[in-house]
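User: Could you walk me through two proteins back to back? I'd like the raw sequence and the structure tokens for each, with a short line separating them so I can tell where one ends and the next begins.

Assistant: Of course. Protein one, sequence then structure:
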Amino acid sequence: MNARRRLAADLGILEVLLILLVLLMMGGAAALSGMTTQPVPRVDLSGMEPAVRQQIEAAYQSAERAATLPAPQAAATFGEAGKTLIRYALPQAALPCFENAAALAPSDFGWEYLAGVAARLHGDLERASVHFQRAMALPSPLPAGLVRLGEVAILRNDLEAANRAYTAALAVPDTAAAAHFGLGRVALLRGDARLAAEHFEAALAAQPEASIVHAQLAIAYRRLGQLDKAAAQAAAHGEGPVRFPDPLISELTAANDGNANRIATALRALQEGRRALVEAAEDFRQAAAADPRDVRAWLGLGQAQESLGDAVAAEASYRRAVEIEPGNPFARLKLGTLLAQRGARSDGIAELKMAARLRPDLKEARFNLANALAQEGRLAEAAAECDALLQLAPDDRGAQALRDQLREDLSRRQPGKEKPPP
């Protein structure tokens, strides 16, 4: 009898195990593991073109269906839905998709990485940092992840973490130029202008078309007292990015229909350098033709034209953006900055003042305004703008350095005797 009872008990255990195995095979993996997937927030699609709306709705339906699938299929389904959503510049909806995929497939580098990208685009720097760190801890990571991690660390003012990430990226040829640029920014924030200049010079030597580096190098030269070099670098400033290969992000640039997606694709081309600037400009031009009232298209077109060296056309595009939305602080910022750089500083200062009035927390507007005022010899006003900026961002070392320089210049002048410097 005892032997029969033991046999029955053993058979009962086997039945339970078989049932569990069948459930796993049929799709109950997420429920059995105790995992709860995040819901994907809905966004307003009413203003989108029908073809775009259809693709986004399909992504939402895929995300809803993913929760019923086995873990591997669910991860892939969530991930693909996230890719569609982020292609259409919807990071707030893409982020939970990628996080669900990463939780369901924890050994997959790509989902953690894309979750970091979505969090960064959504403005959640802490979340982005966590995802990039997890991604880089997995086997065979992309070197591009080190650059992304460094960028987020700088934005979080964690200079030690940024230095570690960029130093690691420096050892990889594909990311060396971007690493030099990042290390230069770290050095500048730490007050080491000489080291910063060395890194920025190395970045430009590797990628002369990366015109965005010139502005940072100009600041470094100014702090070193090399004013002629600083002026030359400031004049060469543009929006040409420092490029580095990033296959996962490149995959997201597949062309789709719709004006919003056309603009988002062109913006990514400018920011990541994955496509020629001429092609980016054409995308923005087509978007502006499709919807002449779309300020984003005109601002993007102006940025592309400015990067291509066509300042006249860029000014016209920025003026068109201001005409459409006079209360848009970014349109005022772009136009004012360009005018100041081209020598029309009075007009540029007026636009930058308007940008700062529309958005008092827009740090770039105040910093550019302070620089333009300083170049006009209006040092006291420039110092006041630096003070206002430092109230918003007390740790902004660029503003601190400019204010200190302005105070030093003011101390050399007699009251009421201000005149433009040579």
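----
Protein two, same layout:
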Amino acid sequence: MSPEPKIAVRRRRAVPRLFHGADLAEDAFLNAPFGLFARQKIKAMEGRRLLWAEREIEDAQFQPASLDLRISKEAFRVRASFLPGRERSVRDRLKSLNAEPVSLAGAGRLDIFTRLIVDGSEAFDDVPLDYRGELWLEISPRSFSVRVREGSKLSQIRFRNRNSQHMEKYTFALTDDEIRKKHDETPLVDGDLNLREGVVLRVDLSGAGHEIVGYRAIKNSDVIDISRVAGYAAEDFWEPIYARPDGRLILDPGEFYILASREKLQIPADLAAEMAPIDPAIGEFRVHYAGFFDPGFGQGPDGAPCARAVLEVRSRDVPFLLEDGQPVGRLVYEKLAGAADELYGAGAASNYQGQGLKLSKHFRDFKAP
């Protein structure tokens, strides 16, 4: 898949069956407190056939508060992004668009834009209550040509338990007051707590003792196979950005950058978080297209925050000046319905625990010339 204005839609492996509150009340298993399901609850869903896949779900797919989704061997190349609309399936829409089949049989920080589509949906990245059917993934590479195959994992899904009091709620995020109280119990960041419908994160362009403060993607590089871990030399795909005395960086339109937050952070065991865009009025750029932070992320051995948030940054339509310490994103938090039986960092697949400025797991450490 090359970084062209074409978008491929690929079916996800996991097929959920989600139920309304009345159905949940009849099931003692799902009669849990309100909040996101932790790993063991998601595994139990699969065991009870509330969630199933064409091929057995692998244990490594179960994350502390989410499920990694695999793509199947079926894929289509389409000319534009779309939503099926009410009472229409994704397959119907693909047929009307004359989508070109692409076989994948046998075949995160990579600037791959992905969005979820489900039958009858009028919004991306949402699976409605009582949905029974396939999940589809829209994939659009932006900077690199990438190679995917059946079984590749490009996104995750979370499951939320509701009761009758929450059926009409649109947002489930903690309020700023709730976040402040949680921070008083367990520090969420290592510095001052800045709140704006979530915890505000600021960009680090000072170097903090290191010369490299970010990376800019090199276009027209070789193809990246997303299944290869540490398979590529970072210098073949990324240009290092060095700290300037004035702590500034100009973002050029169409370019993709990897930067890091000034704050170190941690996610307590009873919460999960997601990176959300900062108010568009603050700047003409977008940070971290989608990012789940699982419970346990960034927890240091002394109980203090130890990991920085890696920021995927792209300017919109005009060059934009970033300065050290400028707000660039925010973390939105949700409660878990129950404590996870395994926290991020406990397993071998926790690639980003304790991270600073870091590229994705596909690249070996950067070697400056």
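The chain has four helices and 26 strands.

Let me know if you want the two compared in more detail.
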